[in-house]
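Task 17 of the worksheet. Students: predict the tertiary structure of the chain below and write it out as structure tokens. Keep your answer in the requested format; marks are given for formatting as well as content.
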Amino acid sequence: MIFLSAKNGRVDSEDRRSRHCPYLDTINSLSPFPTGRGLKSHAYIHSVQFSHHVFLNLHTLKFYCLPDNYEIIDSSLEDITYVLKPTFTKQQIANLDKQAKLSRAYDGTTYLPGIVGLNNIKANDYANAVLQALSNVPPLRNYFLEEDNYKNIKRPPGDIMFLLVQRFGELMRKLWNPRNFKAHVSPHEMLQAVVLCSKKTFQITKQGDGVDFLSWFLNALHSALGGTKKKKKTIVTDVFQGSMRIFTKKLPHPDLPAEEKEQLLHNDEYQETMVESTFMYLTLDLPTAPLYKDEKEQLIIPQVPLFNILAKFNGITEKEYKTYKENFLKRFQLTKLPPYLIFCIKRFTKNNFFVEKNPTIVNFPITSSYFLQGTGKWYELQDLQVTDILPQMITLSEAYIQIWKRRDNDETNQQGA
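Model answer:
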């Protein structure tokens, strides 16, 4: 239940089922409130003590006047219910990327639907960044804007994971709502579902890793939609899943004599093997940043072209991987690219004492001819703050997660999300 602050006066009508209410023109705020409106309910007592009279049931989206306890039916309240539960027609969804039209929030500020700030409740900026990025991937966004796409999916009794689907859909509709009260949105309900469904692996009050959250969220969303590892696909795998071949070759222990190494390489155990695998994102490794710099290099930040670190997946480049007891050489060959390809640039190295960040700048091609909704602009979103950013400034940032759109044969411009 939500009460809408409406003070002063009493209801003169004797009809307790009145469709109109004299308190509507005094509504000036919305506040959460316990459910129920009976004589002993908190809402009823509050209405008597503080002269707050208009209440909204969040489940039925019906308005009531307390303590008189009649339903209010008035077209002026439609704006409030639409903000709480925005809906989109197929035509509206189809036009989202064709017209970049500023909207005016009810508090007077202007905003571009989809380019909307998210509250940082305490330490959830890592999740905000991922959610805002995913909200601007058109096919994923379009699927969740239309609740009919998933509301009838059957889940086992007692399963809570579908809560992720519901809350993500609600968040998408609020982010793209052209009739918001404010030019920002609270992700609180979405984050509560994340905390619950991840069993507190990801929290609101504790910083988390963006890549870890992205990986968990995409897989959890896929599973909650009824997807499986191999056979049953969902919108998540349709948009982000690619495939590759992984070639692995075991290496002899480096401390062994050369002759023994040579002999071991002829054994079946040390022959190269290949497996087919799917992926939701690709992890890109950065060159090791120099530990020490001379005076002339103090202000120089290392740079590397994106295509250099993508060589890891060309099917030829080998990389050594070490486990507690054994060493392996691996190479990766991409066999299928998804419509949207996620790069996770490995900037952070953890050890027993601290987390070290690699500041190397990754250079990649930028075009200003296309971004969201055909505006020709790029935007920087930091929680509530939304600002334009020059395309040439983007590569100077320490990119961590990137989402690239695959260019179809009939497209002439490279497009990124």
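Marker's comment: The mean pLDDT is 84. The two ends are 38 Å apart (CA to CA).
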